[in-house]
Amino acid sequence: MDIKQEDRGTATVVSIVGSLDAMTSPQLTEFLNGQLAEGRANLIGDLAALEYTSSAGLRALLNATKEARQRGGDVRLAAVQPNVKKVFELSGFTSILKFYSDVPTAVASYKG
Amino acid sequence: MDKKIKLPRARLQDLERLHDFIDAACREAGADESTAYALALAMEEACSNIIIHGYAGAPPGPIALTFHASGGQITLTIADDARPFSPDNVPPPDLTTGLEERQIGGLGWHLIRHMVDQTRHEFKPNGRGNILTLVKKFNR
After folding, report:
1. Is this complex's ipTM strictly greater than 0.90?
2. Does A52 touch chain B (CB under 8 A)?
3. Which of B101, B104, B109 to mutate: most A Cβ within 10 Å?
4. Which of A46, A66, A58 is nearest to A93 (CA)?
5. CA within 20 to 30 Å of A49's CA: A4, B52, B122, B124, which one?
6. For A28-40, what is each residue's pLDDT tens digit?
7. Nearest C-alpha of chain A: how many angstroms from B44?
C-alpha cells in the first residue's frame, strides 16, 4: 500500500493506493493520525486506486472519522471502486461515512 | 485443480503470502475478479481472526489453506491448531448504530458469510484446532 497526501484549499486529499489489509491498515491509521495532529481535519480519502480492503481497513477509516469529527472535520471518501464499495455497503458504513463520486466533488463539499 | 500452502507459524505479516496464494489460485482456476476479491476477503477475515484471537496468548501456530476448483465451484479449507472456535457463537454485528457507537467486532464473520455461498466449520478430531470450509460458485 502507498499513501500520498496533497492539500487542496481547506481540505487534504489522502490517496490510498493498493490494498488495505490487517497488515497495512495500521500504516493508514498512523498516517491519518499524523494529519489530524498537524491540524488537517478536513480529510478526503481518494480511493480511486484502492483495489482491496478488509474489515481492518474499515476499522482504520472509522476510527479516523471519529477523530476528525471530534475536531470539527471529517473523513470523506471519493471515487470508491465497486468491489471496495460493496464491502462498505455490506458493513453498513454507507450510512455513517460520506461518499463522493470523485475528488473535486469531495473537495467542494468542504467549501461554504 | 488443487493447490495448497501451509505456514508453520502464521503471523500477520504472512497475510501477503496468503493473498498471493489466493490470487494465483483464482487466476489458475479462471475465476472472475469479484470471485477472487470475495475469496481473498473471506480468507483474510478468517486467517487474521486465527492469528489475532485463535493463537492469542500462545506462540504463532500453523495455518494451512487448501484450494480446490472444479465445475465452476471453489472450495477453500482453512485449517489451524488454534483453540476450538465456533463461528455460530459470533453474534451478528449491529450495522445501524451511529458513528460513535459503531463496533467493528463481529464484522469479519458477517463479511465471510456474505462473500461465499456456504461455510462449514468443524473441530479437528483430536480437539486441537479447527477446519473451516468455504464454498463459492464462480463465473469464468
Report:
1. yes
2. yes
3. B104
4. A58
5. B52
6. 999 999 999 999 9
7. 7
CATH of the domain at A65: 3.30.750.24
What pTM did the predictor assign? 0.95
d(CA B46, CA B113): 11
Q: Is the CATH number of domain B2-137 3.30.420.40?
A: no
Closest residue on chain B to A62 (Cα): B99
Nearest CA distance, A35 vs chain B (angstrom): 20
Distance CA B99, CA A95 (A): 9
B92: closest chain A residue by CA: A91
- Contacts for B35 with CB less than 8 Å, ≥ 6 apart: B26, B74, B136, B138, B139
B24 burial level (CB within 10 Å; 0-12, 13-18, 19+): middle
pLDDT in tens, A74-88: 999 999 999 999 999
Domain-wise residue ranges, chain B: 2-137
Nearest-CA distance B36 → chain A (Å): 10
